[in-house]
TrEMBL record:
Entries under InterPro entries matching the protein: Otopetrin
Subcellular location: Cell membrane
Gene Ontology CC: one annotated term: plasma membrane
Taxonomic lineage of the native organism: Eukaryota, Metazoa, Chordata, Craniata, Vertebrata
Chain segments annotated as transmembrane: 47-68, 80-98, 118-142, 154-172, 184-204, 259-280, 301-325, 345-363, 383-406, 418-439, 499-518, 530-550
MF annotations from Gene Ontology: proton channel activity
Keywords: Cell membrane, Hydrogen ion transport, Ion channel, Ion transport, Membrane, Transmembrane, Transmembrane helix, Transport
Protein name: OTOP3 protein
UniProt gene name: Otop3
Topology relative to the membrane: Multi-pass membrane protein
Family as reported in the entry's similarity comment: Belongs to the otopetrin family.
Pfam families, A to Z: Otopetrin (PF03189)
Organism (species): Cardinalis cardinalis (Northern cardinal)
Length: 565
C-alpha cells in the first residue's frame, strides 16, 4: 500500500515507473507512444497556463495604466479590488495544494536539489516578514485617517497579510517539489500566483513613482513659491493636504515605518515570482538517479583572507557614505559636496569589482573543469534573471550618459556622474559573464581533501573540552587548521574564492544603499531637466527596482560560485 505523503521514498532512489502519472491531453490522444504523448501534453499544459498568466498580467496592467492616466474612471481602489480577487484565488489554490494535491499518493516522487536554496528561502522569509509589517503600518495609518480614507484601504492590506503568510509558508516548504499529479491545474495555479505577484510589484513601483514625484515636486514648490498664497500651488498639492497625518507620535511611526519598509515589498514579489516559475517548470519533471545523487557543496568560510578584508572595508565605507548622504538629502538645503563623495565612492569601488570579475573569468578559462550541460531550470532562470535585471541599471546609465554628454560634461558633478554611469555598465557586464560562467562549471570535490577535512573535524570534536585552560589550545588548533586549509588550496581556486567573497560583500552594500532610500538620480537635476520630469521618473522607477533586484540576485549567484570553487 503506498504511503500517503510519499515521504518513505528516498530522493536518491529512482521512482518506479508504475507510480508515475503520465500527462494526457486530448489534442495528442492519438500519439503512438505514451512517452511522446506525455511530452506533447506537457508542452501543451505549459502553453495554456502561460497564456492564462499573460492574460491576467495584461488585464492588471491595463487597470494600473488606466489608473495612472485617468484617475477619474479607474481609481486606486478599483486596482486594489482586482488584486484582492487575484490574491484570494491564489490563496485558495495554495491551500488546496497544501491540503490536497501534495498529499496524494505518489504526488512528489522527485525533488529538485538545485531549486529553492537556503538564501532564496531566507530572502522570501525576510522580505515576507517586512511586507507583513508594511501592511500592518498601512492598516494603522489608514485607521487613523479613516475619516478621509475608504474602507478598501483597510481591507486590502488585511488580505495582503493572509496572502503573504500563506505564500511564504508554501514557498518555504515546497520550492523543490516536482509534482506528478494534477499537472495542468497545478500549472495554472502557479501561473495565476506568479501573475498576481508580478502585478503587486508593478503597482508598488507605480505607487512609489507617484509618491516620490509628489514629494520631490512639493519640495520644489516650497522653494519656488515661498511666501506665496496656497492658491498658487498645483491642484494635486491641495488634494494631498486634505488628508494629512495628524501631529501624533503613533501616526508618525506608522508613516515612517511604511516609507522605510516599502522597498521590501517590491523585492518580495520579485523573489516569489522567480521561485514560482521554477516550480512551474518542475511540474511533471522526472529527475534522473544520477542527478539526485549529486552532493551540493556547503558554504564554509575557509581559504579566504583578502576577499573578506576588502569586502568588509567596502561595506563599512559604503555605510558611512550612505549615512552622510541620507542626513544631507533630508535637510532643506542638501549639500553638493555629498553627491561628490557619493559618486567618488562608486568610482573607486566599481573598477575594483570589474577587475575582479575579469580576473575570475580568465581563471575560469584556464581551468580544466568540464561544463555542466545537464538540464537545470533553476540555473536557466538564474541566467535569465541576471541578464534581465541588469538591463534596468544599464538602461538608466545609458540615458544618463546621453543627457550628461549633451548638457555640460565638464562640470565636476556631471563628470563624476558620467564616469559612474560608464563604470556601472562595465561592472554589470563583466560580473554577469563571471557569474554565468561559474554557474556552468561542474563541481569536482577532491576525495583526498575531503577525507583530510573529516579527519580534522573528528579530531577537533574528540579533543574539545570545556576546561578554560584548554581554550587557548583550541583557538591555536583552529587557527592552524585554517592556515593549513588555505595553504593547500590551489592558486586558481584560492583567487576564485577571494574574488567571489569580495564581490558578495560589495554587492550587498550596493544593494543596501538604494534599497533604503539613497537615490541620487532623483536629486541630480541634470537628467530630469534634459528628459522632462515625468519621462525621467518613469525611466528611473522602472529601472531602479530591477537594479536593486540584480544586486540581491547576484549575491546568490556569487555564493554558488564561491562554494563550487
Amino acid at each position: 500500500k503506498p504511503c500517503r505523503h510519499c515521504e518513505s521514498r528516498s530522493a536518491s532512489v529512482p521512482a518506479d515507473t508504475t507510480t508515475i502519472h503520465y500527462e494526457k491531453f486530448w489534442l495528442y490522444r492519438h500519439c503512438s507512444s505514451v512517452q511522446q504523448r506525455h511530452q506533447q501534453a506537457q508542452k501543451a499544459g505549459q502553453l495554456f497556463s502561460g497564456l492564462l498568466a499573460m492574460n491576467v498580467v495584461f488585464l492588471g496592467s491595463a487597470f494600473i495604466s488606466s489608473m495612472i492616466f485617468n484617475r477619474v474612471a479607474i481609481t486606486l481602489a478599483d486596482v486594489w479590488i482586482l488584486l484582492s480577487i487575484l490574491k484570494v484565488l491564489s490563496l485558495f489554490w495554495i491551500i488546496y495544494y497544501l491540503m490536497g494535491t501534495s498529499r496524494q499518493p505518489h504526488a512528489v516522487l522527485y525533488r529538485d536539489s538545485h531549486a529553492g536554496p537556503i538564501w532564496v528561502r531566507g530572502s522570501v522569509l525576510l522580505f515576507g516578514s517586512c511586507s507583513i509589517l508594511l501592511n500592518v503600518f498601512q492598516i494603522g495609518y489608514s485607521t487613523i485617517l479613516v475619516h478621509c480614507k475608504s474602507k478598501v484601504e483597510i481591507l486590502f492590506p488585511i488580505i495582503g497579510i493572509l496572502f503573504i503568510c500563506t505564500q511564504t509558508y508554501f514557498l518555504w516548504h515546497h520550492p523543490k517539489d516536482c509534482i506528478q499529479v494534477q499537472h495542468n491545474f497545478t500549472r495554472c495555479g502557479l501561473m495565476v500566483t506568479t501573475a498576481t505577484n508580478l502585478l503587486v510589484w508593478l503597482l508598488a513601483v507605480t505607487n512609489d513613482t507617484l509618491h516620490m514625484e509628489i514629494e520631490s515636486q512639493l519640495r520644489e514648490v516650497e522653494q519656488r513659491f515661498a511666501g506665496k498664497a496656497p492658491s498658487s500651488y498645483p491642484h494635486w498639492c491641495n488634494e494631498t493636504a486634505l488628508c494629512t497625518c495628524p501631529n501624533t507620535t503613533i501616526c508618525k511611526i506608522f508613516q515612517e515605518g511604511y516609507i522605510l519598509l516599502y522597498p521590501f515589498n517590491t523585492e518580495y514579489s520579485l523573489v516569489c515570482c522567480s521561485v514560482l516559475y521554477v516550480m512551474w517548470k518542475n511540474v511533471g519533471r522526472r529527475i534522473s538517479h544520477h542527478h539526485n545523487l549529486e552532493t551540493r557543496p556547503k558554504f564554509k568560510l575557509q581559504g579566504v583572507v583578502f576577499g573578506p578584508v576588502l569586502g568588509t572595508s567596502a561595506v563599512i565605507i559604503g555605510a558611512c557614505v550612505f549615512m552622510m548622504y541620507q542626513i544631507q538629502a533630508t535637510s532643506l538645503d542638501p549639500s553638493r559636496q555629498v553627491l561628490v563623495i557619493y559618486y567618488s565612492y562608486y568610482i573607486v569601488l566599481l573598477p575594483l569589482m570589474t577587475v575582479g570579475a575579469v580576473v575570475g573569468t580568465i581563471i575560469h578559462a584556464l581551468e580544466k573543469k568540464e561544463l555542466d550541460t545537464v538540464q537545470n531550470p533553476t540555473r536557466s532562470l538564474d541566467v535569465v534573471l541576471l541578464m534581465g535585471a541588469a538591463l534596468g541599471q544599464i538602461c538608466m546609465s545609458y540615458f544618463s550618459i546621453v543627457a550628461l554628454m549633451a548638457s555640460n560634461p565638464r562640470d565636476l558633478l556631471n563628470s563624476l556622474a558620467l564616469a559612474y554611469s560608464v563604470l556601472m555598465i562595465l561592472q554589470n557586464i563583466t560580473q554577469n559573464v563571471f557569474v554565468i560562467d561559474g554557474l556552468h562549471r561542474r563541481h569536482v570535490t577532491p576525495a583526498k581533501e575531503e577525507d583530510t577535512k573529516e579527519e580534522q573535524n573528528r579530531e577537533a570534536d574528540s579533543q574539545r573540552r570545556v576546561s578554560v585552560l584548554e581554550l587557548g589550545q583550541e583557538i591555536r588548533k583552529a587557527s592552524l587548521s585554517y592556515i593549513h586549509t588555505y595553504s593547500n588550496l590551489s592558486w586558481k581556486r584560492r583567487i576564485l574564492r577571494e574574488i567571489s567573497f569580495f564581490l558578495v560583500l560589495s554587492n550587498i552594500i550596493l544593494w543596501i544603499i538604494p534599497t533604503f532610500g539613497s537615490h541620487p538620480l532623483f536629486e541630480n537635476g541634470m537628467e530630469r531637466s534634459f528628459y522632462g520630469y515625468s519621462t525621467w521618473f518613469v525611466i528611473v522607477n522602472f529601472g531602479l527596482p530591477l537594479a536593486v533586484f540584480y544586486r540581491m540576485h547576484s549575491v546568490g549567484g556569487l555564493l554558488e560560485v564561491y562554494v563550487t570553487a
